[in-house]
Amino acid sequence: MGKNGGTISGRINVAIDGPAGAGKSTVARKVAEQLGYIYIDTGAMYRAVAYAAIGAGITPDDSDKLGRLVQTLNIVLAPGGEGQTVWLNGENVTAAIRTREVTLIVSQIASHEAVRLNLVQLQRELADSKGIVMDGRDIGTHVLPNAEVKVFLVASVQVRALRRFQELSGKEAVPLQQLEREIAERDQSDERREISPLIRANDAEVIDSTELTIDQVVARILDLCRTKTVEAK
Ligand code: DC
């Protein structure tokens, strides 16, 4: 039972969607921690495919090869210290999937139907037993349309680029303006793709994190979870 187990009974699924850098993974992890739920970062799965494609020398536009590649991949997300550990065919790729090389191609990798079909099936299986907080782009609209709580988390491009800049400082020196440009491009690519584009579900609650702290966003989502659990009783 989670820290709020006294007020939250029965397990629900929580879907958190939104553009890159809106704070989804940090927030989703904390919400899961508070509820005693499992956090699933679906972006990490697409990143693992992108990483595997680079290793196999497959270009991000090669639908056929990517479709075959994804079927050979065993992606496991294991809860661990900072977020979760990502395993790809037995290799710990937690750090490797966060490089810029992966970040720059992952949106294109995620635009292929064969890749999405495979990962969405895995995501649905993981959510089957409820008690899941899942973040991504299409969770509320497509992966878990029946999720009891749906959040669409947004923030200005400037704030998202700044957060990414601070995250990268000391690791990779990338000018802030370049990050802003890249984030805006990734938004466009995620929003405009034909299959499961990034779009708010009609029944999702929009939370703008531009001027909120992480803890304030987490508190808002936990409130939604309480309401839904009470309604579901
Ligand atoms: O959340 P992230 O930045 O790690 O996601 C990496 C990429 O994967 C992002 O460009 C969009 C894509 N993605 C997706 O298409 N659908 C999801 N459910 C999650 C991520």
From TrEMBL:
Its UniProt entry gives the catalysed reaction(s) as: dCMP + ATP = dCDP + ADP; CMP + ATP = CDP + ADP
Q: Which InterPro entries match?
A: Cytidylate_kin (IPR003136), Cytidylate_kinase_dom (IPR011994), P-loop_NTPase (IPR027417)
Gene3D superfamilies membership:
P-loop containing nucleotide triphosphate hydrolases
Q: Which CDD domains match?
A: CMPK
**Chaperone listed as a keyword:** no
What enzyme class is recorded for this protein? transferase
> In which residues is ATP bound?
18-26
- A GO molecular-function term, please? kinase activity
* Enzyme Commission designation: 2.7.4.25
List locations, semicolon-separated. Cytoplasm
Q: Does the keyword Nucleotide-binding apply?
A: yes
- Domain of life here? Bacteria
Where does the record place the Cytidylate kinase domain?
14-225
Keywords from the UniProt entry: ATP-binding, Cytoplasm, Kinase, Nucleotide-binding, Transferase
The UniProt entry's sequence similarity note says: Belongs to the cytidylate kinase family. Type 1 subfamily.
Name of the protein in its database record: Cytidylate kinase
Q: Which organism is it from?
A: Paenibacillus artemisiicola
Q: Which gene encodes it?
A: cmk
